[in-house]
């Protein structure tokens, strides 16, 4: 039996204009399917990936941000957003998608998946991870 590893997917890029955001989302969902401990971190322009109100109609590409709502269904409920990145972009947690999961240990209560952390806390999370993939 293989040991569960702690994966941290670090998202640094804006959601559109490159393939990084979409690829990260695909890889994190695949890792969850293999029952790994998948965590996501959003820093720098990556915070825009989970921002509310994305409109890609003028870009002529599909808006994939609704896919983030499925993360809780895949037991991906450890989503970290760097406080400094939010502040630098004039955003707050209220500007982000309401990502939640149902906690089976708490009678399936719906809980927030997003936790805003400082850059120091994020560095500690990175240190505790077995695998870090940066997108």
Would you kindly provide a written description of the structure presented here, covering whatever features stand out?
This protein has 135 residues and is an alpha/beta fold. The chain has a single domain (6-134), classed as DsrEFH-like (Hypothetical Protein Ychn, Chain: A, 3-Layer(aba) Sandwich). The protein is 22% helix and 24% strand. The chain is built from 3 helices and 7 strands; from the N terminus they run βαββαβββαβ. The strands form 2 sheets. Strands 6-3-2-1-7 form a 5-stranded parallel beta sheet, sandwiched between helices. The model has no long low-confidence stretch (mean pLDDT 94).
Individual helix count: 3
CATH architecture: 3-Layer(aba) Sandwich
Going across the biggest sheet, name each strand in turn.
Answer: 6-3-2-1-7
Shape: globular
Q: Look at the helices and sheets and give the structural class.
A: alpha/beta
The percent range for helix content is 10-25%
CATH topology: Hypothetical Protein Ychn, Chain: A
How many strand segments?
7
Write the element-wise H/E pattern from the N-terminal end onward. Answer: EHEEHEEEHE
What is the CATH superfamily label? DsrEFH-like
Q: Can you tell me the number of structural domains? A: 1
Uncertain ranges? none
CATH class: Alpha Beta
Biggest beta sheet summary: 5 strands, parallel
The radius of gyration over CA amounts to 15 Å
State the distance separating the first and last CA atoms: 29 Å
The percent range for strand residues is 15-25%
Average of the residue pLDDT scores: 94
């Amino acid at each position: 039996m293989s040991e569960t590893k702690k994966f941290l997917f670090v998202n640094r890029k804006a959601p559109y204009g490159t393939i990084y955001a979409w690829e990260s989302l695909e890889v994190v969902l695949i890792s969850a399917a293999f029952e790994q401990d998948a965590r996501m971190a959003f820093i720098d322009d990556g915070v825009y990936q989970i921002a509310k109100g994305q409109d890609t109609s003028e870009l002529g590409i599909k808006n994939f941000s609704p896919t983030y709502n499925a993360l809780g269904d895949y037991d991906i409920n450890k989503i970290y957003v760097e406080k400094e990145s939010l502040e630098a972009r004039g955003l707050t947690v209220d500007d982000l998608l309401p990502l939640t999961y149902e906690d089976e240990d708490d009678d399936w209560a719906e809980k927030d998946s997003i936790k805003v952390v400082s850059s120091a806390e994020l560095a500690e999370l990175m240190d505790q991870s077995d695998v870090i993939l940066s997108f």
